[in-house]
Amino acid sequence: MPKEPKPTINDVARLSGVSKKTVSRVINKSPLLNEATRKKVEAVIAELGYVPNPQARALALRRNFLIGLIHDNPNAQMVLGVQEGILETIRDTEFALVVRPVDRHSPALLDDIRHFIEQQRLFGVMLLPPISENDELADMCRALGCTVVRMGSAALDKSEHLVASNDRQAVADAVYWLSELGHKRIGFIAGPEGFRSARERELGFADGMARAGLPLDPAIMARGTYRFESGQAAGDKLLAATPRPTAIFSSNDEMAAGFLHRALGQGIRVPQDLSIIGFDNTATAAHIWPPLTTVQWPIKAMARAAASKLIDPADAASQPSIFLSDLIRRASAATCAGAHGTDAPAPATQDGHGPAETQPLTPVTKSR
Amino acid sequence: MPKEPKPTINDVARLSGVSKKTVSRVINKSPLLNEATRKKVEAVIAELGYVPNPQARALALRRNFLIGLIHDNPNAQMVLGVQEGILETIRDTEFALVVRPVDRHSPALLDDIRHFIEQQRLFGVMLLPPISENDELADMCRALGCTVVRMGSAALDKSEHLVASNDRQAVADAVYWLSELGHKRIGFIAGPEGFRSARERELGFADGMARAGLPLDPAIMARGTYRFESGQAAGDKLLAATPRPTAIFSSNDEMAAGFLHRALGQGIRVPQDLSIIGFDNTATAAHIWPPLTTVQWPIKAMARAAASKLIDPADAASQPSIFLSDLIRRASAATCAGAHGTDAPAPATQDGHGPAETQPLTPVTKSR
DNA sequence: TTGTACGCGTTATCAC
DNA sequence: GTGATAACGCGTACAA
Predict the structure, then answer these.
(1) Which Pfam families does the UniProt entry name for this protein (chains A, B) (predicted)?
(2) What is this structure's pTM?
């Protein structure tokens, strides 16, 4: 176990015949420095493989370089996408990403997070939905002296501290697209109450229906929990309605999958008899049968922007804070059979894994 | 932005009328301490909300409290499960978890990771498959002076530095179970060459077939990439074989899903005409139609054990290092139609989301 | 049982 | 431009 101590700034100073401070200036790229001495010092640094000790830096600067990712998110892909996005931004900086999965139902939630931030002396934290919707939490983090950036489905905060998707518009556009496909009876599966994302998607559904001149019928609307089973329950209700809906918008993919199970179990053909659209573009969406048309957040881009806002607050306001989602069109949604349109329904044998599937199609959403 | 400086050990010492060192003893739970002074100091600590600065501690102790999770893993759920497991173990310690997704195909992989470890002065790292199979990488980490624990599908390392599932046995048992269901023609989809997990699962398949007295037929075996599309390709090959296999073991769920698409596309009924078993128990497995019988790693337990080995090397050898997987039985595998068994195939309308599904059944694997 | 002096690796101050 | 010297917050010798 090679345990030879790592070279310090003193070693570099001694070997290059300058003072510690000069080495420090080289490291921090001070502008007022003789080019010759800089070169000399840099040579010694390279030779020794010297790397500044971040703990000592943090101590002297009274400032840390850890950013925390706090989440309680059921969507593993999203969390991982965020981690990758953040990493891309901080890759060549001295920042590191420390993660903290939490349980939003724990009564000790706030205390846990407070302890986490205080103990690690975090520079900043990034909050993922749904806990990003918790204003009390965000305030507490700020009171602890760390910058906060929240990721969400709507304008939860000032733009310097926010990165959000416009779920409302994305859903409205998707629903309107269904109407363009000839669907007139469009059902809806809402997410759980208390989730901002669920509420935005509901509003978007109403917007889209209104734009299409279609009425909202409570008989073909249900509230779920974002879980698979609740999608099945919604299937029990909505598929029994008369007349049956010809299309369904589900507030997430998991419920859409549950709903689809029920539909297939009743011998309903998708998309010939019924179109389904989900939300999230989870791995499941691409792998179920038929492949699910769904709305996708530009997660990595959002995470990159969020990380920028975190590590460079001065630049935060200039970074975009609202992102538009793409509709990933797969086989689960097609022209309404009863409509007068000329498009044939997507063939049931289409796997939806051609080139049109692996790269998102033209977004339904538009800049405004 | 409340920016009042946090209380330091000096503040505590002053207010409680003792020296720094005494406070330090309280923090570190030194046994030789007057109970009265301890109580007094603890009161002041609580009152001030004092939290020791980990950076200063790290500096003084010449030892850090960051553990790194390095991974390049396509299975988001597994990565997140590991993160949660690690967190459960380090929750009440001063350790923090810093994550580093990497690209195993990058030529700079080793340099990237070296830089990461040196820059953050990591205490230890945890390697996830498939990069945990890279001996050169593990050696480099150790040369950098940080302890390494690897997670994998087989005995990659000494037990102090390893947490592994016994994929070979799990697959063998699952395949043997298929034979007990009456299947005699069992196909196999292998994972990509160069993956240790893929190799172990292949060996397990061969073991299981041998135990069942069944021959290996290359006509119903295919090699995939662990990706969905390769499962479809395997479907094209294996479903064209004569006679057609009555059961398939796929080395992961994603390929199983691709295979299933092809089977359903050809009008083959699952499980009546064909049984399918996957590996990983991803979210997809539970959500596709029919729900997929699959092998599941006890990921959280493994991650907890791995974290223990990391932060307490003295205790490492006593922790278990080989974990047994569970077979999650769902609707996709059933009695072979042509067999003489009395069990009826699972009804096609079963959603597989009853109680028997949400909690794993009795494991097929046994302690040895 | 408790306190003093010093070191850990770095940056900031303020001379030169 | 560059270099002594003092922080930063905490732990360890060693003395009391």
Answers:
(1) LacI, Peripla_BP_3
(2) 0.89
What distance, in Å, lies between the first and last C-alpha atoms of chain A? Answer: 60
Put simply, whether B145 touches A (Cβ < 8 Å) is: yes
Domain range B167-297+326-360, its CATH number among 3.40.470.10, 3.40.50.2300, 3.40.109.10, 3.40.50.10230: 3.40.50.2300
Which residues between 160 and 219 in chain B have a beta carbon less than 8 angstroms from any beta carbon of chain A?
none
Nearest CA to the C1' of D9 belongs to which residue? B56
Same fold, B60-165+300-323 and B167-297+326-360: yes
Domain A60-165+300-323, CATH among 3.40.47.10, 3.20.20.60, 3.40.50.2300, 3.30.70.1130: 3.40.50.2300
Q: How far apart are CA A179 and CA B8, in angstroms?
A: 64
Span B25-55, pLDDT tens digits: 888 888 778 888 888 888 999 988 899 998 8
Identify the sign of the CA torsion B195, B201, B205, B207. Answer: positive
Straight-line distance from the first to the last Cα atom of chain B, in angstroms, rounded to the nearest whole number: 59
**pLDDT tens per residue, chain A (368 residues)?**
445 678 899 989 988 889 888 999 998 888 878 888 889 899 999 999 999 999 999 989 888 899 999 999 888 999 999 999 999 999 989 899 999 999 999 999 999 999 999 999 999 999 999 999 999 999 999 999 899 999 999 888 899 999 999 999 999 999 999 999 999 999 999 999 999 999 999 999 999 999 999 999 999 999 999 999 999 999 999 999 999 999 999 999 999 999 999 999 999 999 999 999 999 999 999 999 999 999 999 999 999 999 999 998 888 888 899 999 999 999 999 999 876 544 444 433 334 333 332 222 233 333 33
DSSP bridge partners of B222: B189
Cβ contact, residue pair B257, A287, below 8 Å:
yes
- Shortest CA distance from B260: residue in chain A: A289
Concatenate the DSSP letters of all residues of A71-137 into one string: E--S-HHHHHHHHHHHHHHHTTSS-EEEEEE--TT-TTHHHHHHHHHHHHT-SEEEE-TTGGG-HHH
Rounded to whole angstroms, the Cα distance separating A285 from A330 reads 9
Give per-residue pLDDT as tens, B116-139: 999 999 999 999 999 999 999 999
d(CA A343, nearest CA chain B) in Å: 22
Q: Bridge-partner residues for A66, per DSSP? A: A96
- For residue B95, what are the β-bridge partners? none
Domain at B9-52, CATH homologous superfamily: lambda repressor-like DNA-binding domains (1.10.260.40)
- Domain map (residue ranges) of chain B: 9-52, 60-165+300-323, 167-297+326-360
The residue of chain B nearest to residue A254, with distances taken between CA atoms, is B287
Contact A99, A154 (CB under 8 A): no
Cβ-based contacts with strand D at under 7 Å:
A 17-22, 25, 32-34, 36-38, 56, 59-60, 62; B 5-6, 8-10, 20-21, 24, 27-28, 52-53, 56-57, 59-61
Q: Which of A229, A283, A353 sits opposite B282 (nearest CB)?
A: A283
Helix (H, G, I), strand (E, B) or coil at A55: helix
Q: Which is more confident, B359 or A352?
A: A352
- Strand D, nucleotides < 7 Å from a protein CB: these are 1-13
